[in-house]
Backbone:
């Protein structure tokens, strides 16, 4: 079974702090994704990566950056956390890229981040 | 504009009853449609995936249908159980990008009462 793990289930930070959210997958997937999920808005894509050291902006990249130094690990960084970044953050991975797009994304359990 | 709309927003049913959730999409070019189940406080888990040529797919008590002509999908849950209480998310993928961009609906929150 594919396993996607996230470093924390719950996190509380103060405004202005630098925040690191880590995601690890154990199935040698090429693609990794970071989403945030807010009530009534559904999942929104922040960043994704299709290879080591490669990254692409999603729909809402402002205020976030990412790092992918190893294939299995994808980190989301909040350079200076703000209260509007309080949300559920979900990491996902999928096997291959390609126009078929049939590769299922496997999600981690999520990190609920609260910024005070 | 590529969009995925789900209805109803929320639904309450009694244990043992059947229910149907709806998904309409405008994503083009269409690649595939997935239904995910998300338990409270957990990440979404894939239930079914259907490509253009498939019009029905089952996973236990879950049956998804797809009408690619009208761009509609439904998820039918048979003999509901308390554990079916969750958010059900419709996700559509396009063929326009190499990665297969995903478009998410906002989900239907299902509550099953004993």
Residues:
């Amino acid at each position: 079974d594919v396993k996607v793990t996230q470093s924390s289930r719950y996190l509380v930070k103060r405004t202005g702090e630098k925040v690191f959210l880590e995601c690890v997958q154990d199935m040698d997937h090429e693609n990794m994704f970071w989403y945030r999920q807010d009530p009534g808005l559904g999942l929104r894509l922040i960043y994704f990566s299709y290879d080591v050291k490669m990254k692409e902006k999603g729909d809402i990249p402002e205020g976030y950056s990412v790092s992918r130094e190893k294939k299995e690990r994808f980190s989301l960084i909040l350079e200076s956390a703000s209260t509007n970044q309080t949300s559920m953050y979900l990491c996902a991975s999928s096997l291959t890229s390609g126009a078929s797009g049939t590769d299922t994304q496997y999600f981690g359990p999520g990190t609920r981040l609260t910024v005070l | 504009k590529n969009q995925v709309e789900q209805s109803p927003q929320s639904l309450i049913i009694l244990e043992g009853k059947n229910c149907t959730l709806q998904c309409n999409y405008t994503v083009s070019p269409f690649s595939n449609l997935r239904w995910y189940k998300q338990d409270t406080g957990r990440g979404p888990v894939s239930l079914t995936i259907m490509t253009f040529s498939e019009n029905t797919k089952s996973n236990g008590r879950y049956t998804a249908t797809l009408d690619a002509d009208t761009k509609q999908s439904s998820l039918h849950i048979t003999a509901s159980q308390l554990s079916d209480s969750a958010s059900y998310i419709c996700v559509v993928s396009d063929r326009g990008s190499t990665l297969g961009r995903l478009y998410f609906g906002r989900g239907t929150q299902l509550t099953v009462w004993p």
Observations:
- Chain B has a mean pLDDT of 92.
- The first strand of chain B starts at residue 4 and ends at 7.
- Chain B has no helices and eleven strands.
